[in-house]
Amino acid sequence: RDDMPSILADVFSILGKFEFLFYCFVPEAILKERLDPETLESLGLIKQAHQFNQKIVKIKTKLFYKQQKFNLLREENEGYAKLITELGQDLSGNITSHLVLESIKSLIGCFNLDPNRVLDIILEVYESRSDQDEFFLSLIKSYMCEPLTLCHILGFKFKFYQEPNEETPKSLYHIAAALLHHNLIELEDLYVHLMPLDAAIVEEHKRDISEAKQIARKLVMVVLPSEKNEDKEKDKEKEEEKNEKPPDNQKLGLLEALLRIGDWHHAQSIMDQMPSFYATSHKAIPLYRRAGLPKGARGCVLHPLRNKRAPRPAETFEDLRRDTFSMLGYLGPHLSHDPILFAKIIRLGKGFMKELFVCSLQDTLLSCFLSIADQVLLPSISLMECNACMSEELWGLFKLFPYQHRYRLYGQWKNETYSSHPLLVKVKAQTVERAKYIMKRLTKENVKQSGRQIGKLSHSNPTILFDYMLSQIQWYDNLIVPVVDSLKYLTSLNYDVLAYCIIEALANPEKEKMKHDDTTISSWLQSLASLCGAVFRKYPIELAGLLQYVTNQLKAGKSFDLLILKEVVQKMAGIEITDEMTSEQLEAMTGGEQLKAEGGYFGQIRNTKKSSQRLKDVLLDHELALPLCLLMAQQRNGVVFLEGGEKHLKLVGHLYDQCHDTLVQFGGFLASNLSTEDYIKRVPSIDILCNQFHTPHDAAFFLSRPMYAHQILSKYDELKKAEKGNKQQQKVHKYVAACEQVMTPVHEAVVSLHPARVWDDLRPQFYATFWSLTMYDLAVPHSAYEREVNKLKVQIKAIEENPEIPLNKKKKEKERCTALQEKLQEEEKKQLEHVQRVLHRLKLEKDNWLLAKSTKNETITKFLQLCLFPRCIFSSIDAVYCARFVELVHQQKTPNFCTLLCYDRVFSAIIYTVASCTENESHRYGRFLCCMLETVTRWHSDRATYEKECVNYPGFLTIFRATGFDGGNKADQLDYENFRHVVHKWHYMLTKASVHCLETGDYTHIRNILIVLTKILPCYPKVLNLGQALECRVHKICLEEKDKRPDLYALAMGYSGRLKSQKVHMVPENEFHHKEQPARSATPASQQNGPGSTGKPATSTSKTDEGTSEDGDKSQGTTKPVNKANSAAAKVTTSNGNGALNSTKAVKDRDDKEKSGKEKKEKKEKTPGSTPETKAENRREKQRDERAGKEERAAREGKEKTPKAEREKAKAEEKSSKDDKAKAGNGEPAEPSREREAIKESKSKEKGDRSAVAGSLKSPVPRSESAESERDHKRRKLDSHSSPSHSSLCPFLLYLPERSLPLHIPAAPKITKESCRTCTCMTSGKPYRIHGSWKAFHGHQHNILQNWEKPLKDLAKKLLYILSIFILKYLSIFILMKAVSVPWEERNFLSISIFRVDFFAF
Fold first, then answer.
1. What angle do CA 273, 279, 285 make, to 5 degrees?
2. What is the pTM of this model?
3. 3-class DSSP state for residue 762?
4. Model confidence over 1078-1127: pLDDT tens digits?
5. Residue 761, exposed/middle/buried by CB under 10 A (0-12, 13-18, 19+)?
6. Which of residues 605 and 735 earns the better pLDDT score?
7. Which of these, 1056, 1070, 993, lies nearest to 1028 by C-alpha position?
8. What are the helix (H) ranges across 1246-1402?
9. d(C-alpha 192, C-alpha 1260), whole Å
10. DSSP 3-state assignment of 1067?
C-alpha cells in the first residue's frame, strides 16, 4: 500500500518505539512530519531543533496568514458583471448548465475571480430564480468543490437574517431544501447554522404547556376580585411581550421548504429533533394541504408532486402503513384543520376493517389503525368545534372494533391525550368550564335547551363532559332524570363514550363502595346504578362492556356492583324484584307473563320489548347469560364466607340479599325472554350444575325449572301432533307421558345430589316434583285476571268519555286495551288447562312419593330440610308455593304424609330459622308462615270446612297402623276440638319464639322477628292474651331502641300500630279453643274424652306455680321465660294425678273455689295496682286464703273417721307447704308435698288463665343467673333452645305448657284391693294394663291399709302418690313410642305431642 509508511509511523509513535522507525525504511519526509524536533535531532535527521522550530513558524505564517490578492468585486467588477449576466440569461432555449459552467470558468480565469465568491453569486441568482431548480442544481453539482464550503456559505446567509427584526426569505429556505434533497449538503452541517437552538425550542414548548395549565387552573379555581385585577395586569404584560416579534425560526422554515418539495426524509429528521407536535402546531407546516375549510367545501383530485423523489401516492394498505401512517403520527391533533382529510382516513379504515380477513398483514395494519385513532383521530376531533358529522363518521369506524379496543382508546383519550399538547390542555379547561355552566342551570323544565348545549359540547370532548356530569350525579341523585332526558342529542360515538365513562367511574379505586358506617352501600354507587338502568334502557348503548365488568367483579369475589345489573335488568326488561309486594301483586305473579306485566309490579314499565331484546342479544352474543347466573349463585355464599369477614353483619346481609335478588331477577329475565332452544342449549343438567359448577341446589333448580317446563311442553306438542285427538282425557294422558319422558332423567340425576340415606325417607320423584313445579302449575289466579280485565274495561270507558283525546288516538288506545284484554283472557284459559293437566299428573304420582317403611318424623324432617325451608326463603312466589304445595299434598291424600306433623314442625321451632335469615329472607319466611297460617285458620274457624278438608285424610291420622290408612276408623283421626287445641298450641309456640327473639337484644333477631310478625299479622295473633304479651314486649323494644337503633325502632313502631288495629279481631282463649267444664256429678274426670279434662286444671296449676316462683324472685320483681318450663312440668304431673281425690269432695271444693275466685277477681279489679310486685303479692295472698278455706271445709265435712288423723294431716300439709316455699325461694324444685298442694287447687275454676300466660311471657326484666339452681338452668336451655328433631323425654315434658297440649291422659284412679288383684305384674315384662271398668274402680271409696299404724299409713300414701306420678309421667310416653314404632334415636316428642293418647288403652 502507498500509505504503509505513514501507518507504520503512526503505530510506532503510539508505542513510543521511535528507534524502530529508522530501521523500517520509513521515508525521511514522513519522519520529519510526525516526530517532534527533539526526537528528530536525537535521530540525526536535523541539526538543531531550535532552528527547525523557527522554520516551521515561518512556513505556517506564509500558508495561513498571508492573503492572496484576488480580483475582488470592488476592485474590478467587470468579471462579476459578466458572471451575473451569464447566470441571469433566459434559460428556456438550448442553454444547459454545462455550457454556462464553461463560461463561468472562462470568466474566473480571465478576470481572476474568487471561486467562493462566484459560488455565492450563483446561490444568489438561484435564490432569485428558485423556479429553475433543475438548471441551478445541475450547475452547482458541476461547479461543486467542497460540500462543507457550500454549507458554510449557506450558513453565512442564514446568519445574516438572525437579527431580531429580520425575516428569512422563503427562497433561501427553498434552495437549502433543494440542496439537501439532492444530497449536495448534509443536514447535520447546515442544522448548526440555524436558529433557534434546540434547547430554546424545548424550553418554549414547556413554557407553552405550563401557561396552558395555568389558564386551565384559573378556569377551575374560584378567584377573588383583587386577584382578578392582578391577573389582568399580568396578562397585559404577556400580550405586550408577545407583540414583540421574536427572531424567525429558521428550522421550521427549512422544514416547511422540505415538505413543500417532498423531502420527507429530511423533514422527519428535523421533526425528530423537536418536541412532539411542536413543528405541526405552527400553521405554516404543510403536512396537510389546507389550513382551513370553507363551508360547503368538496374534495378534489390532488395531483402528486412533480418531484420524483417525493413519496408516491399509496395504492395498497401496505403503502398506507409504510408512508402515510408515519406522516399522520407527526401530524397528531392538528389533523383537525382538514376535516376532509380526516374523513378520508376514517373511510380508509372502514374499508380496511371490511377486508380485514382478506389482508395478509391484518394484525399489523389493525394495530396501525388503532394507533392512528389514538394519536391522531381522537385528539383531532377534540380540536374540532361541534362537528357532529365527523363524530358519526368516526363511529362508523369504531363500531367495527371490539369494545375492548374502543374502551382502551377512550381511556387514552380521557386520561393522557389532553396533557400532551398545550392546545388540548386549554380545550379541556374550556370544556369543564362550559359543562359547569350547563349543569348549574339544568332542570326538568329546560331539558331541551340544556340538552342541545350538552350535545354540542359532547361532539368534540365527550370524555371531559361526561366525567364532570357523572361526578355531579354521584353527589346529587336528583339530577339523574333531567340528565337522562338531556342526552337525546348525542351521537352514537358519544353514547359509547358515555358507557365507558360510567364503567370507569364504577371502577374508580379511590372511591369507597361502603358508607363510613360500613353498614350500607355508598350513595354514589346507588346513583350510578340508577343512571345505568335509565340510560341503557332509553338509548341504544352497547351493554357488553358493562356486563363484562360486572362478571369480572363477581369473578374477583366482589358483589357490590350487582346493584348495577339489578337496575339494568329492572329498567330494560321491566322485571322488578321486591319483597314488599301486595297480596294482589303476588297473586298476579302466579299467572302468565301478561298478567305479571300488568299487575305484578308497582310501576307498569311499558315499551320494554326493544330494550329487553337488546339485553338478550348482548348476553347471547358474548356468552354471558350462564356465567352470570352461576357466579351469582356461587357468590351468595361467598358474600358470607369470603367477603363478610371484616364487614358489618347488616352490610353482609344486604349484599347477600342483593346477590340473591339479582339472581332471581336475572333468571326470571332469561326464562321469559330466551327461546326454548337457546335456554336448553345453555343451561346444563341439574347434576352438572350442582356437582361440577358447585351451584347451590335451590339456585340450580331455579335455573333448570324453565328448561323442564319448556321440554315438557315441547314433548307434549310432539305427542299431540303425532296422535291427533281432541278428547281432554287423551290430552291429559299425553301430558303425563311427556312429563315422564322429560323428568325420568331428572329423577336419576337428583340421586347424586344427596347421600343415599336421604332417599330412605324421600323418593327422588317427590323431590324432583317439588323443585320442578311453580305456582303457575298449581293454581289459576282467577281473581287477578278478573281484576286486570275490569281495569282495562274501566280504562276503555274512560277513553270513550274523554272528549279531549283525538279520535285517532282514542281509537288506537281502545284497540290496545281490547287486545290486552283478549290476551289476558286467552292466557287465563291456557293456564287453567295447564293446571288441570298438572293436578292429574300429581294425582297419578302421589302414591309413589313417600315410602311406607320410613319413619314419619324423619320423612317430615327431610322434607323440611331439603325442600320446604330452602325454597320458602328463595322468593316471595316460592314462599306461597311451599305453603300451597303442603296443602296440595294433603288434599291429594298422599300416603305416608302426616300433615299435622308437618305443620307442627313448621310452627313449633322458628327461633333458629328466623335468626339465620337475612332481611329479605325474613320477609319471604314471614309470607310463608302467613300462608301456612291462612290454611290452618280456615280449618280452625269452621267445623264444616275442617270436616270436609281434613277428616278422613291420612294427613290427620294420630295413630299410624301397619295395615295402612283406614278412612272409616274415627278413633284414628284428630277431631275438630282437639285440632283447635293444637292450633292454640301453635299460636303459643309462635308467641314464645317471638318473645325470645325480642328479648335477646340482638339486632338480627329483633329485626327478623318484627318482619315476620308483620307479615303474619293477618293470621296471628288471634288470642287476646298472646297479643297482649307481644304488645308489651314490642312496646319495650320501642322504648329501648328509640335512640340506639332507629331502624329497629321504626319496625317496632310500625308493628305496634298495626297490632293495636288488629286487637279488635282477637278473642279470649276460651273462645279460640273450647274448654269444657268438669262434670258436677259423681262421674270421674277420667271418663271425659276431650280437652276439658286437661285444660282447666292446668291453668290453675300454672298460676300456682308462677306464684310460687315469684315468691322466690322477690328481689327481681318479675319472672323469666324459663319458669314456663317449671310450670309446664307441674301442669303435666298434677293434671295426670288428680284422680286420687274424692270426687264428691272435689265437686264441693270447686263450688267453694268458684265463689272465692269470683270475690278475689272483683277485689282485684277494684285494686289499681298492676305492677309485677303487686301481682305476685295478690297471688300469694290468694294461695294462703285458698289453703285456709280448704282446711275449714275439710274440718266441717268430717269425712275422715278420726279427727286426730285429720289434724295431723293438716299439720303435715302446712309443714310441706312451708318446705315448698323455702325450696322455691332457694330455686329448688318442689317436692311431692308441693304437688299435693297443686292437686288441691286443681279443681277450682280459674278465669284468669290468660293473664297467667301473659305474665309468663312478658318478663320485661331478665332474672340474674345467680338466682337459679342448676336444674332451672338446664330447663332454661331446653325451653329456649331445644331442637325439635333431637329432643329427649324430659325436654318434651318441660317444653310445652299443659294447656297447649292435646295429649289427653285421664286422671289416675285410686288403687283398690280389687284392682290390685286384677293388675298384671309390672315385673313380668308385659305392658302395664289395668282390667275392669273405671266405674268399678270409682264405686269403691275405701282406702288401702286404713287400719294400719299411722306412720306406715302416711308413708304408703306418699309412696303410692309418687309411683302414680312416675307411671303417668313416663310410662305412657314409652308405650306410645312402641305403638307408633318410632326408633329411640329418632323420637321427636314435640311432634308426637299432637296425638291424642288414651293411656289405659294400652
1. 135
2. 0.68
3. strand
4. 443 333 333 333 333 333 333 333 333 333 333 334 333 333 333 333 33
5. buried
6. 735
7. 1056
8. 1249-1258, 1270-1281, 1289-1295, 1313-1318, 1334-1339, 1350-1366, 1372-1379, 1389-1392
9. 98
10. strand
